[in-house]
Design goal:
alpha/beta, eight-stranded parallel sheet, 8 strands
Amino acid sequence: MVAAASVVVAVGTATGMMSALDDGRGSDEARPEVTDSPTLDLRPPAPSPSPSATGSASASASPKKKSASPTPSPTRTEKKQATAAASTRLYRHPESQVLDWVRDNPGDARQDVIRSRIADQPAAVWFADYTPDTITARVRAVTSGGAAQGRVPVVVAYGIPDRDCGGASQGGAPDLDAYDAWIDRFAAGLGSGEVVVILEPDSIAQADCLSAAQRADRFASLARAGRVLKDADPKARVYFDAGHSGWHPAAKQADLLRQAGAASAASSDGVFSNVSNFHRTADEITYDRQVLDALGGPASLGAVIDTSRNGNGAPADGEWCDPDGRKLGRNPTLNTGEARIDGYLWVKLPGESDGCKGSPGTFTPSYAYDLASS
């Protein structure tokens, strides 16, 4: 993923979340092991003036830094929500790098802060490696775990061909036919309970590197993916890539989303934004509502926002790789109190490095502690 998206790093989209990768142990386990999965280089492209109220910039295929956009002060309601406990309805998968670290380091002085503020929170589980033979069982391991607890898992499908425009998070299925078959198998693991599906971070916002024909083919596969996922599990909520408030103007992003089927209730429940990025929740709320208004479609369409590392907003210099001075954002919840905002999620697991404070995608306790104690 380019500069404009989110920095999904090595453990599942350069975003660094729990990632259920195939480690060769068999198809009955979902284990978040670090592999050579994609590292999302989500630096924003060079900013250009636009009429967007959020000061977003046009994305380019090359990773260029983006300037920060104005950040409104949080309202009283937002301040109150920032301290709310995590929703008990969201599922915390029992396998992740941060949980492994907490279990293995009981005497570390940082352990209590990292455990209570990060490890105890529900986070997304990424499926970023192309392993069609085991994907159904691995997805099922997560969704059945959530169902057993009466909680809602968040899963990330990240297997689109030519992802990240061949950048740090390159990978995915070899072609769209293979991707369509992979999505079929992914959908077969959803079960029949509630689940949130984050469908292909950066796949829409970062499509400028593709030719017009390639974009049309990709968008057709994404529209199909949404239909397949929702047909397989009518309780699944599927969200499409809206980039973030510092990227495309809302009208442009909505046009791209419409081409990918995101305005159809048969494929979509709305959009997601800010995956692996740092833009403030207030900015994302404003932007997502603008995108949804421009998108059209049923009034039921909403948005979910990655709040995992946005507590201090985006760095003024546009740095995307483990920037200093960041902190945790709002705890994950499906009860935001905000119209058309369906959830605040931790899609990127805080503490998993973008590649500067640690190896890409690996849990880095010093970074996690900085985020959690800021």
